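Before relying on records like the one below, remember that each one covers exactly one chain. Contacts with other chains, cofactors or solvent are not represented anywhere in the record.
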Amino acid sequence: MNKDRNAPSRKAFDPAKLQALLEHIGRLLPDEKERQAFYSCSQTPPPASLRLNPLQAQSQTLHPLLRQLGESVPWCEDAFVMPESEKGLGQMLEHAMGAVYVQAKAPMLAVEVLAPRPGERVLDLCAAPGGKSIQIAARMQNSGLLLLNEMRSKRMPSLVGNLERCGVANFVVSQAPGAMLARYFHNFFDRILVDAPCSGDGIVRKDKNMLNYWSSENAGHFGQQQIGLLRTAFHMLKPGGSLVYSTCSLSLEENEEVLLGLIRRYADVEIRPIDKYENRPLPPEIAAQYPADFSRCVRVWPHHHNTEGAFVAHLCKREPTTGTHRDEDAATWSPQTSCDSAADEARRAIESRWQCNLPRPQDQIYTLSSRLLTLQPALGPAIQQHLPHFVRSGMRVARHHKGYSFISQQTVALYGHLMQGPSIELNFSQLQSIFQGQLAQLDRPTDLKGEVLCRFGPWTACRAIVQQGGLLLDGMLPRNFFRNNLRTLV
């Protein structure tokens, strides 16, 4: 879905248009009983859900609690439907720490089908706002190469902000049309996710403003764009690799018709069955219009799973493809095999100051550039050198200034449990003050001076500076982490 939902004014939706959309989609259901259930469900808001982020080590302590509070998502073992609203979940400490990501359960299926593995090369072609990207990085255990592409610049802040909050390090971000990326990456990626921009007819439960844009003609227009994206993505997939095409649309125009557009260009497309989900077939008269193996694609119907609508197809490539344009070949780019001396020195200084060993996956490197110490994929510097559409790569571990490295909030949240340096245990009231951008009053003076870590239960919340003779803490928390009504799940 690529419409701007944050515009300052919205006209009320037309009920007749809602009925037209529901009838357009409802014809894909087998009988009137199913259609009426779909119509009724589509006029009620979906429940909120969240997914644990395994990159954050402390997130796993939440599993027992979430099993009690929420309902498990059948296709994602780390996800739960919650009684809390999305807005309420966003105020939780666990959300600020990157331990959970608030996301509808239907979109999670695409990444579970993609099943990325550690050490692979993976492309998320339409990455913002980053929920699926974070899910992919977690499955990759922050290793390998995760190229995240987002074509629209105004969606870039949400993507980067979510990556930082959730501690993703194995990524490179690019901003380019899919066809431009395909000039550089030929038969290159082990797995590709194409979560294509669409009309969003599947999210009508959540956002009826999409009706102001929807029409069957507009869905067909999106379908043409999606065919182009899918064709370029298929070229970038290596033979034997997996490609998942997904949308938050339930229509034929943006799903089966798009797959037809792909197989008209490439004859060697294999559509694989999806084992994680029991599919409900299209009515026979509609299914007969498409190849038999299209029945392996799945629709997540809102009235069956009490969520938003989605479509997922799992594709495989048998033979290499030849691109029409070839600016460079990423297969010839050399990864950086070792950290530079300045980065090593900065990393060792952090480890000494905070009494820890910072992790370094085998295929990741530390680099120091523009005073930023970054943990990034070994191929990141080469991509920056050769790809004109490069934006940034890796997790910013620290900012280096006048011989001292100030660790980032991401480093604190992700690796704080490994650090044995000076720290202060806060109560919840003190923690709330820091998350509101205020000074925290300590119960008794501390002998610690300067920079300390602030801890609360299993969480290392942030850095702070001890002030006023050890009575006050000035939290070093970025403004985008502030929560006026901070709460905790525990």
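Confidence is low (pLDDT under 50) at residues 1-10.
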